Amino acid sequence: MVARQLPKLKTRVRFPSPAPSFKLDCMFWHRNLLLETFDWYLREVLPVVERYATQEKYGYHGLYTHTAAVVFRGIDYALSLKQDPKPVVLACAFHDIARLNDGPDMEHGKRALPIIERVLQNHFPSYLPFAQSIKEAVENHTGGHTAPDYISACLWDADRTRLSWDRYFRPYFFTTERAKTVASKSPSKYIKFMKRNMSKYAAKIITVIDTLY
Ligand SMILES: [Fe+2]
Ligand SMILES: [Fe+2]
Question: Are 190 and 199 in contact (CB under 8 A)?
Answer without folding.
Answer: no
